[in-house]
Amino acid sequence: MSGKVFGAAAAALVIVTAVYAAPRKDTQFTLTDPQGKNTVCISVGKEITYSVKHSVAGGQQMPVINPSRIGLELEGGVVLGKDAHVAGKSTKTVDAVLKPVIYKKQRIADQYSELTLRLKAPAGCKGSYSMVWRAYPDGIAYRITTDFPQDFRVKSETTEFVPAGADIQMVAAPIKGRTIEGQENQWHSNFQNTYKHLSLNQWPADRQIMLPALVQTQGCNLCITEADLLNYPGMRLMAQGNKLVGTFAAYPKDVAVTTRGLKGEVRSREDYIAQLPGKTELPWRVILIADEEKDLLCSDLVYKLAKPADTATDWSWVKPGKVAWDWWNDWNIYGVDFKAGINTETYKYYIDFASSQGIEYVILDEGWAVPGEADLFKIVPEIDLEDLIQYANKRNVGLILWAGYRAFDKDMERVCAHYSRMGIKGFKVDFMDRDDQQMVDFNRRCAEVGAKYKLLIDLHGMYKPTGQQRTWPNAINFEGVYGLEEVKWEEPDFDMVTYDVTYPFIRQVAGPADYTQGAMRNATKENYYSSNTEPMSQGTRCRQLAEYIIFDAPLSMLCDNPSNYLREPECTRFIATVPTVWAETRALSGKIGEYIIMARKAFDGTWYVGGLTNWDARDMDIDLSSLVNGQYTAELFCDGMNADRAARDFKHITKQVNASDRFTVHLAPGGGFVMKLSK
Predict the structure, then answer these.
(1) Is residue 491 flagged as an active site residue?
(2) Which of 93, 508, 612, 654 minimizes the number of CB atoms within 10 Å of its CB?
(3) What is the rounded distance in angstroms from the CA atom of residue 549 to the CA atom of residue 314?
């Protein structure tokens, strides 16, 4: 992990191969990545279209995206992309190595070819605009940039994805909208939705699709998402016959304050989606291309496309780690001589637990500030925050505060300055539930102002990440995931176990997820029931341990209460000591909705291997030869003999192994395993 950002890359070779300034008559352009795997063909004329080919085994080029339209309608009837003329062209090839501040890898190979087409502005519009294309060995991306002399408004964007092939399957999450004024409104969502597997022509035409979305065709996996979303509405998709089209929330006009003053509901919208400065870079439209499903698990494409962090800033203060969390377990500690709840005594108990286990943080979730006031300077009388901060500091534990977005936004600068001076380490900001331009800008400001005052920012009620953690490394985690909080209220027949072996292939492509695992009360499929005060997970105890390896979360929760953890010292010790950022990440095997095996290398050279299955019991074969040389000590947590009946049953084994050893680990239904390999 590096605290200082050394430019965009530690080592880079950039070759500019051609620059044309004069108008060109060319109408067809192609771009291929440096390894020859992906080619994008762009046609410029009456309209702008693109298509994509991918090299499969044997080198054959297979179409994966058929001609698809691109355009931007501006206020006043101007359409970028209509009757387009190329005014100039440049290409370059980049071969670089990125060194992230906080990430799942210590080094990232950044290799791509780039084509920039500068286009004449249409009649009625001064200046110019460009289309920037990149071809990577694992995908294609493009963005529109503008160079206009004045601000402008975007009425709509045309973004099409027309998958090639006869049998087009989709694994994606339909947006489940919130009820606004008595009706479902898909533009309001907590972005915590489950996946459906349907053919493209079966997808409901009236149902928005949340990004990332996975398309399977021609033997390839195409993961569609976006990157570098900073000042523009987030993209969703709609199915229209044989294609997917982008759809975007209009800019809010009237926002009503709701939910104890913490949320904002849009009651009316403008007739445009964005208002932008004349010189603007729109988000990257991204198509990740993977031959095998497991290749989706380690993608860096969104991170690579994001704007790099400020090179002059020292980010060494950004400390990843684990968090003892209160809300999931309802502050429900026991065996103590005080009344548990939102009070100083309870939080000192959480702090003592965190300190004893080497856990870096404790979160004070909703309830520390006076309810109904939406004022983060009014603290409930049951909490002495200054005392708690001093108490935590003496025990090397940092405190993070929860905040509803409206309360945080009312006076963000003053809130951050005040609590930073007090010694608070970060904010968990919640309830945004939108991705229109106004809300995207709020999330950017959270990270920017938080960085100014050296505060971590954990964004909840949040759309998918788009690389913001590269631009501001203090934006350390994001929700936008159907996380373990769902077990507190879902119906008994819901299926978290299958979701757990689906979302890492899709949602996690975009970036880390605050899933909040770590339950010590575990249930089989038959024994599960929802409980708000004493929640339980679906699946086995070892599944919960394995999720710390499978799921990306630089700021990772321990969702259960300290009293339960103290009764389970072996599991707690493992969770408390597992890293949250890594030197290396590998996907060993996996199939969407069925199983995953991943390996991660800590900065001290220790390897962690984790595996998850769906509701099918299975045997997993582990070959150590690709990970280690010589002799290692293997510490294994695996499902116990009776984990299919009592999900908390596990085995804890330590043995000496070497690189030639192979393991077969049995996973119970809804099971998991973890193996720690250390010298």
Answers:
(1) no
(2) 654
(3) 28
Catalytic annotation present for 485: yes
**What is the C-alpha to C-alpha distance for residues 489 and 328, in angstroms, rounded to an integer?**
11
Q: What is the pLDDT of residue 7?
A: 38
CB neighbours (10 Å) of residue 492?
Answer: 12
| 327 three-state secondary structure | coil
* Spatial contact of 133 and 42, defined as CB atoms under 8 Å apart: yes
Q: What is the DSSP string of 457-476?
A: EEE-S-----SHHHH-TTEE
Q: What is the mean pLDDT of each run of 10 residues along the chain (679 residues)?
A: 45 62 72 98 98 90 98 96 96 98 98 98 92 99 98 98 96 94 95 96 96 97 99 98 98 96 96 98 99 98 98 95 99 98 99 99 98 97 99 99 98 98 99 99 99 99 98 98 97 95 99 99 98 98 99 99 99 99 98 98 98 99 92 98 99 95 96 98
Total number of residues shown for the chain: 679
Q: What is the pLDDT of residue 18?
A: 55
Domains, the chain, with CATH or none: 11-305 (2.70.98.10)
CA distance 521 to 132: 51
pLDDT of residue 19: 53
Q: What is the DSSP letter of 104?
A: S
pTM of the model: 0.96
Q: Which of 160, 142, 135 is nearest to 70 (CA)?
A: 160
Angle CA 158–160–161, to nearest 5: 165
DSSP string, 557-619: EE-S-HHHHHT-HHHHHHHHHS-SS-SEEEEEEEETTTEEEEEEE-TTS-EEEEEEE-SS-EE
Catalytic residue among 73, 300, 485, 514: 485
Beta-bridge partner residues of 6: none
Residue tagged active-site, from 293, 430, 479, 552 = 430
Which two three-digit tokens encode residue 644?
Answer: 């299919």
Beta bridge partners of 187: none
DSSP state for residue 381 in the 8-state scheme: T
**Long-range contact list for 626-631, CB < 8 A, 24+ apart?**
626/586, 626/588, 627/586, 627/599, 627/601, 627/659, 627/677, 628/657, 628/658, 628/659, 628/677, 629/659, 630/658, 630/659, 630/679, 631/656, 631/657, 631/658
